[in-house]
Amino acid sequence: MDENRQAMLSKKWIIEALLDLLKTKPYASITITEISKKAGVARLTFYRNFDNKEEILLMRSNYLFQEYFNEIQKSEGTIDINNALLKCFTYWKRDAEVMELLIKNNLIYLLDQPFYSFLEKIMEEVPAIKGLNEIQKTFILGGLTRTMLQWISTKSTDSPKQVTASILKLLDLEHLTN
Please, what is the average pLDDT of the chain? Predict the structure, then answer.
């Protein structure tokens, strides 16, 4: 088997092993040995790919955001904010079980940096938000992250489309100044 393909498989197995262990154990009590054993890889293989447990979750977040970003780029024509938000919440909803595990283990901070990095890429693709400054980007990052947390942790019955519409209504604040 190609070495690169084997490394990718090992990473996938390690990610899946940690997520599986999180279903029954708190993050803080999971060891590298347990993850390696569950993944069916040697500890050396673990350390070839990751320095610690946090890197596993960061890599998984990066994979998820890259998949989302690729989906945004596939959109025909100009990408609008409605489509970008709708796809975003659709991805989060699909990943609700893992999000709940991250929330339960106080690990949601591991989403912030990958999300911010991809937010900048997405802003380059969506003309309506391309020119936002750092304060505005930070506001959007915080708002979207906290909205996602509330939406997932309360098991809201609102659909991704409803959440998107609610956010877009809020962002159209001009009606509040009249």
Answer: 86
Chain-centre distance for alpha carbon 98: 10
30 or 77: which leads in pLDDT: 30
Q: How far apart are CA 41 and CA 11, in angstroms?
A: 10
Contact 169, 147 (CB under 8 A): no
Residue 82, exposed/middle/buried by CB under 10 A (0-12, 13-18, 19+)?
middle
Non-local (6+) Cβ contacts of 117 within 8 A are 65
Question: H or E stretch including 119?
Answer: helix 109-125
Contact 115, 141 (CB under 8 A): yes
